[in-house]
Amino acid sequence: MSDSNTPANGAAQPDIEAASRHKPDEADGMGVQTEGGRQAPDFGFWEVRGAAGASAAGWNSQHPHVFHLATWSPSQFDGGSLQGATEENWKLLAGQQASVYLARLEPGGVREPHWHPSAWELNFVISGKVRWGFVGPQNTHDAFEAGAGDLVFAPQGHFHYFENASDTEELVVLIIFNASAGEPDDDVGIVESLSAMPPEVLGAVFKTAPESFANLPRKLERVTIARKPHQAARDG
Asked: What CATH number is given to the structural domain containing 89?
Protein backbone atom coordinates (compact mmCIF):
# COMPACT_ATOMS: atom_id res chain seq x y z
CA MET A 1 0.00 0.00 0.00
CA SER A 2 1.20 3.52 -0.65
CA ASP A 3 -0.05 7.07 -0.37
CA SER A 4 0.42 9.98 -2.79
CA ASN A 5 3.85 10.65 -1.32
CA THR A 6 5.08 7.09 -1.74
CA PRO A 7 4.43 5.75 -5.27
CA ALA A 8 5.19 2.06 -5.73
CA ASN A 9 7.09 2.60 -8.98
CA GLY A 10 10.75 2.99 -8.05
CA ALA A 11 11.54 4.54 -11.45
CA ALA A 12 9.52 7.61 -10.50
CA GLN A 13 11.58 8.35 -7.41
CA PRO A 14 13.25 11.78 -7.28
CA ASP A 15 16.96 12.34 -7.78
CA ILE A 16 18.31 12.98 -4.28
CA GLU A 17 20.94 15.30 -5.72
CA ALA A 18 18.17 17.61 -6.94
CA ALA A 19 15.74 19.61 -4.85
CA SER A 20 14.68 16.79 -2.55
CA ARG A 21 16.61 17.29 0.68
CA HIS A 22 16.11 15.87 4.13
CA LYS A 23 14.47 17.54 7.06
CA PRO A 24 14.05 16.06 10.54
CA ASP A 25 10.65 14.39 10.75
CA GLU A 26 9.60 13.21 14.18
CA ALA A 27 6.72 11.20 12.74
CA ASP A 28 8.95 9.25 10.37
CA GLY A 29 10.45 6.84 12.90
CA MET A 30 11.48 3.22 12.76
CA GLY A 31 9.67 2.14 15.90
CA VAL A 32 11.65 2.89 19.05
CA GLN A 33 10.57 2.34 22.60
CA THR A 34 11.83 3.68 25.90
CA GLU A 35 13.35 1.19 28.32
CA GLY A 36 14.51 2.54 31.64
CA GLY A 37 14.88 6.05 30.27
CA ARG A 38 16.90 5.07 27.18
CA GLN A 39 15.92 4.54 23.57
CA ALA A 40 16.07 0.97 22.28
CA PRO A 41 15.20 -0.53 18.89
CA ASP A 42 11.84 -2.23 18.64
CA PHE A 43 12.09 -5.26 16.37
CA GLY A 44 8.31 -5.51 16.26
CA PHE A 45 8.21 -2.59 13.82
CA TRP A 46 5.47 -3.88 11.57
CA GLU A 47 3.65 -0.54 11.94
CA VAL A 48 6.00 1.93 10.28
CA ARG A 49 5.00 5.57 10.12
CA GLY A 50 5.47 7.76 7.06
CA ALA A 51 6.14 11.47 6.76
CA ALA A 52 2.50 12.38 7.30
CA GLY A 53 2.15 10.07 10.29
CA ALA A 54 0.15 7.55 8.26
CA SER A 55 1.20 4.00 7.47
CA ALA A 56 3.43 4.04 4.39
CA ALA A 57 5.03 1.40 2.19
CA GLY A 58 8.20 1.59 0.14
CA TRP A 59 10.34 4.64 -0.33
CA ASN A 60 9.58 8.07 1.08
CA SER A 61 9.41 11.01 -1.37
CA GLN A 62 10.52 13.50 1.31
CA HIS A 63 13.31 11.26 2.61
CA PRO A 64 14.71 9.10 -0.23
CA HIS A 65 17.25 7.48 2.11
CA VAL A 66 14.35 5.79 3.96
CA PHE A 67 12.54 2.66 2.77
CA HIS A 68 9.57 1.36 4.78
CA LEU A 69 10.45 -2.31 4.37
CA ALA A 70 8.12 -3.70 7.01
CA THR A 71 5.02 -2.37 5.24
CA TRP A 72 6.09 -3.17 1.67
CA SER A 73 3.67 -5.60 0.01
CA PRO A 74 5.12 -9.10 0.60
CA SER A 75 5.58 -11.96 -1.84
CA GLN A 76 3.59 -14.83 -0.37
CA PHE A 77 4.69 -18.48 -0.50
CA ASP A 78 3.36 -21.72 0.92
CA GLY A 79 5.49 -21.52 4.05
CA GLY A 80 5.99 -17.79 4.57
CA SER A 81 6.70 -14.47 2.86
CA LEU A 82 9.45 -12.13 1.65
CA GLN A 83 9.55 -8.33 1.63
CA GLY A 84 12.46 -6.91 -0.34
CA ALA A 85 14.17 -3.59 -0.98
CA THR A 86 16.22 -3.74 -4.20
CA GLU A 87 17.19 -1.38 -6.98
CA GLU A 88 13.89 -2.29 -8.62
CA ASN A 89 11.76 -0.59 -5.96
CA TRP A 90 14.29 1.68 -4.21
CA LYS A 91 16.18 3.82 -6.70
CA LEU A 92 18.85 4.75 -4.16
CA LEU A 93 20.23 1.17 -4.23
CA ALA A 94 21.01 1.21 -7.97
CA GLY A 95 24.70 0.42 -8.45
CA GLN A 96 25.35 0.15 -4.69
CA GLN A 97 25.68 -3.66 -4.51
CA ALA A 98 23.16 -3.83 -1.66
CA SER A 99 19.67 -5.21 -1.13
CA VAL A 100 17.65 -6.27 1.91
CA TYR A 101 14.91 -8.81 2.50
CA LEU A 102 12.63 -9.47 5.43
CA ALA A 103 11.82 -13.19 5.56
CA ARG A 104 8.98 -14.50 7.68
CA LEU A 105 8.64 -18.29 7.98
CA GLU A 106 5.59 -19.88 9.52
CA PRO A 107 5.92 -22.98 11.71
CA GLY A 108 7.03 -25.73 9.32
CA GLY A 109 8.39 -23.16 6.87
CA VAL A 110 11.58 -24.03 4.95
CA ARG A 111 13.70 -21.76 2.77
CA GLU A 112 14.50 -23.83 -0.31
CA PRO A 113 18.11 -25.08 -0.36
CA HIS A 114 19.95 -22.80 -2.77
CA TRP A 115 23.12 -20.84 -3.48
CA HIS A 116 23.97 -17.39 -4.81
CA PRO A 117 26.57 -17.41 -7.63
CA SER A 118 27.57 -13.77 -7.21
CA ALA A 119 26.54 -12.53 -3.75
CA TRP A 120 27.17 -13.23 -0.12
CA GLU A 121 24.35 -13.14 2.41
CA LEU A 122 24.24 -11.78 5.98
CA ASN A 123 21.28 -12.89 8.10
CA PHE A 124 20.09 -11.28 11.34
CA VAL A 125 17.54 -13.25 13.35
CA ILE A 126 14.92 -10.80 14.62
CA SER A 127 12.66 -13.28 16.37
CA GLY A 128 12.03 -17.00 16.63
CA LYS A 129 14.33 -20.00 16.41
CA VAL A 130 16.02 -21.10 13.18
CA ARG A 131 17.87 -24.19 11.96
CA TRP A 132 20.58 -23.62 9.33
CA GLY A 133 22.52 -25.97 7.08
CA PHE A 134 25.55 -25.21 4.88
CA VAL A 135 27.65 -27.05 2.33
CA GLY A 136 30.83 -25.32 1.21
CA PRO A 137 33.92 -26.11 -0.85
CA GLN A 138 36.27 -28.95 0.13
CA ASN A 139 33.42 -31.03 1.56
CA THR A 140 32.72 -28.64 4.43
CA HIS A 141 29.39 -29.04 6.21
CA ASP A 142 27.84 -27.00 9.00
CA ALA A 143 24.44 -27.41 10.68
CA PHE A 144 23.25 -25.48 13.75
CA GLU A 145 20.43 -23.60 15.42
CA ALA A 146 20.33 -19.85 16.04
CA GLY A 147 17.99 -17.45 17.81
CA ALA A 148 16.98 -13.82 18.14
CA GLY A 149 19.97 -11.47 18.00
CA ASP A 150 22.25 -13.92 16.15
CA LEU A 151 24.07 -13.19 12.89
CA VAL A 152 24.58 -15.92 10.28
CA PHE A 153 26.83 -15.42 7.26
CA ALA A 154 26.50 -17.32 3.97
CA PRO A 155 29.62 -16.82 1.80
CA GLN A 156 29.13 -16.36 -1.92
CA GLY A 157 28.43 -19.65 -3.66
CA HIS A 158 27.91 -21.72 -0.51
CA PHE A 159 24.92 -24.05 -0.70
CA HIS A 160 22.56 -23.42 2.22
CA TYR A 161 19.03 -23.49 3.58
CA PHE A 162 17.23 -22.51 6.76
CA GLU A 163 13.97 -23.51 8.41
CA ASN A 164 11.74 -22.45 11.26
CA ALA A 165 12.85 -24.62 14.20
CA SER A 166 9.69 -23.88 16.21
CA ASP A 167 6.35 -25.66 15.89
CA THR A 168 4.42 -22.71 17.29
CA GLU A 169 6.23 -19.40 16.67
CA GLU A 170 6.89 -17.41 13.52
CA LEU A 171 10.51 -16.92 12.43
CA VAL A 172 11.59 -13.45 11.25
CA VAL A 173 15.00 -12.93 9.61
CA LEU A 174 16.50 -9.79 8.05
CA ILE A 175 18.73 -10.72 5.08
CA ILE A 176 21.34 -8.40 3.53
CA PHE A 177 23.01 -9.09 0.16
CA ASN A 178 25.95 -7.41 -1.56
CA ALA A 179 23.92 -7.25 -4.78
CA SER A 180 21.40 -4.60 -5.79
CA ALA A 181 19.24 -6.82 -7.99
CA GLY A 182 16.30 -8.82 -6.74
CA GLU A 183 17.06 -12.20 -5.19
CA PRO A 184 15.58 -14.23 -8.10
CA ASP A 185 18.35 -12.85 -10.33
CA ASP A 186 21.05 -14.38 -8.10
CA ASP A 187 19.40 -17.47 -6.66
CA VAL A 188 19.82 -21.06 -7.89
CA GLY A 189 17.48 -23.45 -6.07
CA ILE A 190 17.80 -27.19 -5.58
CA VAL A 191 14.34 -28.05 -6.96
CA GLU A 192 14.90 -26.42 -10.33
CA SER A 193 18.48 -27.71 -10.43
CA LEU A 194 17.60 -31.38 -9.84
CA SER A 195 14.57 -31.15 -12.11
CA ALA A 196 16.81 -30.08 -14.98
CA MET A 197 19.11 -33.12 -14.64
CA PRO A 198 18.37 -36.36 -16.57
CA PRO A 199 17.83 -39.48 -14.39
CA GLU A 200 20.90 -41.07 -16.02
CA VAL A 201 23.10 -38.22 -14.82
CA LEU A 202 21.68 -38.30 -11.30
CA GLY A 203 22.06 -42.06 -11.20
CA ALA A 204 25.70 -41.78 -12.25
CA VAL A 205 26.68 -39.22 -9.59
CA PHE A 206 24.67 -40.92 -6.83
CA LYS A 207 25.96 -44.33 -7.97
CA THR A 208 22.51 -45.86 -8.13
CA ALA A 209 20.04 -46.96 -10.79
CA PRO A 210 18.57 -44.12 -12.89
CA GLU A 211 15.15 -45.57 -12.13
CA SER A 212 15.57 -44.29 -8.57
CA PHE A 213 15.01 -40.79 -9.96
CA ALA A 214 12.30 -41.63 -12.47
CA ASN A 215 9.57 -40.38 -10.15
CA LEU A 216 11.40 -37.22 -9.14
CA PRO A 217 8.92 -34.36 -9.68
CA ARG A 218 9.90 -32.03 -12.48
CA LYS A 219 9.44 -28.45 -11.34
CA LEU A 220 11.38 -25.92 -13.41
CA GLU A 221 10.54 -22.93 -11.23
CA ARG A 222 11.54 -21.39 -7.93
CA VAL A 223 10.00 -22.72 -4.72
CA THR A 224 11.61 -20.11 -2.40
CA ILE A 225 9.72 -20.93 0.84
CA ALA A 226 8.07 -24.33 1.24
CA ARG A 227 6.15 -25.89 4.08
CA LYS A 228 6.68 -29.32 5.62
CA PRO A 229 3.75 -31.63 4.80
CA HIS A 230 3.24 -32.73 8.41
CA GLN A 231 2.86 -29.10 9.52
CA ALA A 232 0.38 -28.36 6.76
CA ALA A 233 -1.68 -31.42 7.71
CA ARG A 234 -1.59 -30.44 11.40
CA ASP A 235 -2.78 -26.89 10.70
CA GLY A 236 -5.39 -28.10 8.21
From this structure: 2.60.120.10
